[in-house]
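## retry 2 of 3
previous attempt timed out at serialization; input unchanged, resubmitting
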Amino acid sequence: MIFLVPLAIAVVVCAVAVWRTRTEPRRLSNAYWLLAGAMLLINVLGGVGLVVVDLLSFTIVAIALLSPLLVLVLCGFLIMNGVVMLRRERASLANSLSLLAGLTITALVVLLIPVFLSGPLWLRSLWLLGLLAAGYLGFHFVAFLGYGRLYTWLVRNRPATWVMVLGSGLRRGTEVPPLLASRIRAGIAEFSRRGARVLIMSGGQGRDEKIAEGTAMAGWAVEQGVDPAVVRAEIKSRTTEQNLRYTGELVRAEAPATEGPGLIVTSNYHVLRAAILARKTGLDAQAAGAPTAGYYWPSAMIREYVAILRERLVLHAVLLPLVAVPLPLALLIAAG
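## retry succeeded, writing output
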């Protein structure tokens, strides 16, 4: 009887998590509901002997013991990826994100020993503050990565009456570069696989472009054998949110051929944010991803994560200090 209340709480949280995820998968908050439900359920089942708690505890301890090595491996990977990224792409802040992340984590680790051996209390508290803040951001980043994977699986077979492909910039002002070509190929494949009736290429004309991205993309798709009668070009947008809003207008104008849900095709690192933005703009569409070069993916995912944080900047500005500040502050107060 003592386990009935926690079991009931765990079942309710799990049921809410599954219901939220099934009815509207385009919410990152689903990740936290699913995680909370899983942790509560494991705790209850462990209490009645249905889950081997010793094995779970051993796994947690093993991960904790290996975490320094894992951190070093992660730092090395991020730094090497950042170097490769800057060699193959133009130098910019966005393309340097994996390098900067690796160097920042390395600095936190390297400073650990001298700070805790000989550093003053205020410096140790400051380091702990930075570590807790990094832990908070890291937790959300892992949730973002994990739910992004789950999301693509959840919507992989959703029906679509129309498919839109997001633009990403032209090469030499008129040419479709490899990344954009990958998106268009994936869009053509999804258009055929899901039995859609309209294929929309979305992208306006940048300052360094001679034609609109949507126009170049539509021409490229037709060259690949797509029937010109089903291809449309949206050429006014300059941002992802505008892509979605203007495509929504085009979809409504094409009714009844476009009545029903749609599908957004973009690069695999951009899928979850595109889906979240579609929900924000009221566009009835899920999202699917196109392959991206392996070296490009880490920096791109970090960039997407930063954009996700920016969407809820006030919320994170409140939560991060609540997580990171109390313990270092308590240490300073206790020391007098």
